């Protein structure tokens, strides 16, 4: 049995065409995709926040170890600086054995060195050389040779006295040499003054 719709045309329900249905379904699909994307974004955001919290907790756990490593690195750097400084001091350190050898080699014939003393109690940074000779002029020769050595800044004949020994005139002299500034080398490891006694000049009898 057929039915007749007596409503006016503008009030009668319109049948949706295929294009309209497709647009509606497309809109629903887009909204659904947007909803899914939003949910994924929220989940990912919470996941990132959780990872950040885990990393911060791990960093808090490792921070004491990191501080210890940094402290060790600073100590190593300080030790390296000290080592470098010590090496530099060692390279510039005055070798007293070499100084004494040079003093002995500088001693002219006819001169006997009785005592070579480093750092006497009366002065600092000096070497005092006591000796005897039968040729007074050789005292001046020794002083000039010592002055030319690279270890001293000044050389002075402090005294020269004649005395008769076994019927022969012998000059007893004292020469004072100022050592170039290097406080580390003026004392031995026990803090005692260094001495070289009984060094004779080459050719001395």
TrEMBL record:
Region (Disordered): 186-205
PANTHER family: DNA UTILIZATION PROTEIN HOFN (PTHR40278)
Transmembrane helix recorded as keyword: yes
Coiled-coil ranges per UniProt: none
Keywords: Membrane, Transmembrane, Transmembrane helix
A Pfam family that the UniProt record links to this protein: PilN
Classification of source organism: Bacteria, Bacillati, Bacillota, Clostridia, Eubacteriales
Transmembrane feature ranges: 21-48
Name of the protein in its database record: Type IV pilus assembly protein PilN
């Amino acid at each position: 049995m057929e039915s007749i719709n007596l409503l006016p045309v503008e009030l009668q329900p319109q049948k949706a065409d295929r294009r309209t249905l497709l647009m509606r379904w497309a809109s629903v699909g887009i909204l659904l995709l947007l909803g899914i994307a939003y949910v994924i974004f929220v989940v990912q955001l919470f996941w990132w926040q959780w990872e950040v919290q885990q990393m911060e907790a791990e960093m808090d756990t490792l921070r004491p170890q990191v501080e210890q490593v940094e402290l060790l690195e600073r100590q190593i750097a300080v030790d390296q600086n000290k080592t470098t400084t010590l090496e530099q001091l060692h390279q510039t350190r005055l070798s007293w054995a070499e100084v004494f050898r040079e003093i002995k080699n500088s001693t002219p014939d006819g001169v006997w060195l009785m005592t070579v003393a480093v750092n006497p109690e009366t002065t600092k940074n000096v070497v005092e050389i006591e000796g005897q000779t039968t040729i007074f002029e050789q005292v001046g020769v020794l002083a000039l040779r010592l002055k030319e050595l690279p270890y001293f800044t000044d050389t002075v004949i402090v005294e020269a006295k004649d005395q008769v020994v076994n019927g022969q005139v012998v000059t007893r002299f004292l020469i004072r040499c100022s050592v170039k500034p290097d406080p580390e080398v003026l004392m031995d490891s026990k803090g005692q003054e260094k001495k070289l006694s009984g060094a004779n000049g080459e050719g001395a009898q």
